[in-house]
Write a structure and sequence with these properties.
- The structure is a homodimer.
- By secondary structure, chain A is α/β, with parallel strands linked by helices.
- Helix content of chain A is about 45%, strand content about 10%.
- Chain A is built from 10 helices and 6 strands; from the N terminus they run βαααααβαβαβαβαβα.
- In chain A, strands 3-2-1-4-5-6 form a 6-stranded parallel beta sheet, sandwiched between helices.
- In chain A, helix 1 crosses helix 4.
- Chain A is globular.
- Chains A and B meet through helix 1, helix 2 and helix 9 of A and helix 1, helix 2 and helix 9 of B.
């Protein structure tokens, strides 16, 4: 039985694993191949949201037709470029990520992972964290109708833990995590480890902002846990 | 004779060319090879400053010895990784960069480029912009004693144009550009195209912040030029 009625719902990329910049350049490569000329920083500001929504917005901003074929090719090319890069330079957990998760387990505070990514790119990162998806709820984009900034992923994660989303803390690195947290009436905790600015996270509703999981763990008493 | 007593002094990476994220991952690769385990976002927040200073800070933060050999290996490995990436996925000018420079030339407003990078990585980017370093002053890290956040690069650029630095506008994407501008008593104009947040640029003294060179050109009357 969990000791706590609070749950921690973690985003994956940029929050637990150091993979955001690799995702950004993998999207850049996929978009280049599709003839979509978009500055890298604009891609950075859009990722973390649903990949489909992301592709729709990019194609709309650049005036290209949004066909099912084009969206599917973007998805496949991004996954190929990302997985190739990850083989060359393995993606690593962020500092303190494993310790943060171990701490919550020790304290019997329930936690789950909720990511806008699909299992095809998320699986190796989850393995690198030492997380067993048969034990810990891992909600990927494949499992819900709408990904972030819709709150469905976090709501599904809280449901799987049997905790009310309103009593949950959503930990994420992007403004889409913070917006999804607000839409679900959860509290959002922002981490700078995805490369967004503190001001961006605060303006999108972060209740508190830390550097990375190690910094969150050092300040854990500020947000929830008591040992 | 220049019509204006104002000059525009441009940073290169992230300000005129879309190369910051590639530099970040090239540094990540060089640091990994050197056994320095540093999160990617922390590298992003440090680049744009002098490469030597950057290496010193990183090595100091990670507790490794700062030897001349190690600094030199980092420099060489970063340049190799960056140039390899740039061959695979060519670096492109940011939207509006060429138009911005052409506009200033038409208006006979002097401008120059001042970058913390060395000519070995800057040369292809300057070529991609269509800039001839025999005509336009291009001050690289090789030419001054201290790079950003020291103001030497921008002061040297203003000197070459024969304009007082105090009457100059420094256009850059990183907080190091804004700090160097303040130290030189110039006005700093921040661009978001290097992937830093608006709040970070404002807090480091940006007089005004725009998306990218195209957005600066659309708002040029706010900061200097009159046609």
């Amino acid at each position: 039985m969990p000791r706590s009625s609070t749950a921690f719902l973690f985003d994956l990329d940029g929050t637990l694993v150091d993979s955001v910049y690799q995702h950004v350049l993998a999207w850049k490569e996929a978009l280049d191949q599709e003839g979509v000329d978009l500055s890298v920083w604009r891609i950075h500001r859009k990722i973390g949201m649903s990949g489909g929504l992301f592709a729709n917005i990019l194609l709309r901003e650049t005036g290209l037709d949004i066909t099912t074929d084009r969206r599917e090719r973007l998805r496949v090319r991004h996954a190929e470029a990302y997985n190739r890069q990850a083989r060359e330079n393995p993606i690593r957990p962020l500092p303190g990520a494993r310790e943060q998760l171990a701490f919550l387990s020790e304290q019997r505070i329930p936690w789950a992972i909720a990511t806008s990514g699909r299992m095809e790119t998320a699986a190796p990162n989850i393995a690198a964290l030492g997380v067993d998806p048969n034990v810990v709820p891992v909600i990927t984009r494949d499992l819900v109708r709408h990904a972030k900034p819709d709150p469905d992923l976090f709501i599904a994660a809280a449901d799987r833990l049997g905790i009310d989303i309103v009593h949950s803390l959503v930990v994420g690195d992007s403004i889409w995590d913070m917006l999804a947290a607000q839409r679900a009436r959860a509290l959002g905790i922002g981490l700078l480890s995805g490369g967004y600015g503190q001001g961006e996270l605060e303006r999108s509703g972060a209740f508190r902002v830390y550097d990375d999981p190690a910094d969150l763990l050092r300040h854990i008493d500020e947000v929830a846990a008591r040992s």
